[in-house]
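Reminder to self: tokens first, then the designed residues, so the page reads top to bottom the way the pipeline ran.
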């Protein structure tokens, strides 16, 4: 139901499939003020219409945690939600290991001090109409992992929009990249990309196939 809920450090570990349902029309109505991380080890689950953020008032110094970490062989699907790591060190989301995966729609990931999405070791993530914004480093960083993005927005991050390392694969279509200081994409020689119908505004001078530069945001 609507309201504020608090989870103290070290956070919450989910080992069995759960459905966490908030307000799909306005996730600001259901807020979980999270100390530590939500670690999702369960093979399945669903989150809908919830804002996860850091406690506004705390006497403790900032610790280092992701908002959500997909652990063990965990998988979690999510819609209409917000993950905000403002006030805590760490990325917004992490997944490291084969079988760790998720399908997310209309999710906002913001204010990661160590990046937005960090993936390693065979993990995979599918994003549609999601936003990654306001992160201090790279928005998305994949090492030996797979990410698919459709109609997403990557905006106002201090690092690169997409970084691919060590056999990573990215499929990016109909996405918009805006004002990412580190550029569009950094890719290792053994990484693969499938990119089409994307647009770019103020993400450096380097051009990348599949990304059309815009003179103004209204051009598309």
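Designed residues (220 positions):
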């Amino acid at each position: 139901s609507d309201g504020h809920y608090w989870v103290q450090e070290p956070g919450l570990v989910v080992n069995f499939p759960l459905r966490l349902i908030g307000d799909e029309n306005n996730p600001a109505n259901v807020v979980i003020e999270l100390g530590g991380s939500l670690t999702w080890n369960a093979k399945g689950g669903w989150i809908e219409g919830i804002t996860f953020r850091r406690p506004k008032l705390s006497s403790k110094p900032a610790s280092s945690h992701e908002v959500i970490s997909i652990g063990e062989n965990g998988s979690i699907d999510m819609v209409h939600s917000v993950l905000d790591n403002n006030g805590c060190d760490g990325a917004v989301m992490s997944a490291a290991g084969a079988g760790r995966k998720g399908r997310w729609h209309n999710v906002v990931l913001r204010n990661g001090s160590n990046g937005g999405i960090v993936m390693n070791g065979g993990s995979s993530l599918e994003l549609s109409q999601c936003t990654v914004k306001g992160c201090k480093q790279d928005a998305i960083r994949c090492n030996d992992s797979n990410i698919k993005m459709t109609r997403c927005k990557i905006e106002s991050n201090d690092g690169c929009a997409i970084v691919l390392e060590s056999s990573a694969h990215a499929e990016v279509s109909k996405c918009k990249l805006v004002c990412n200081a580190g550029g569009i994409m950094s890719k290792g020689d053994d990484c693969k990309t499938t990119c089409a119908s994307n647009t770019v505004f103020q993400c450096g001078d380097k051009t990348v196939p599949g990304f059309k530069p815009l003179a103004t945001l209204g051009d598309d």
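The first strand starts at residue 3 and ends at 7.
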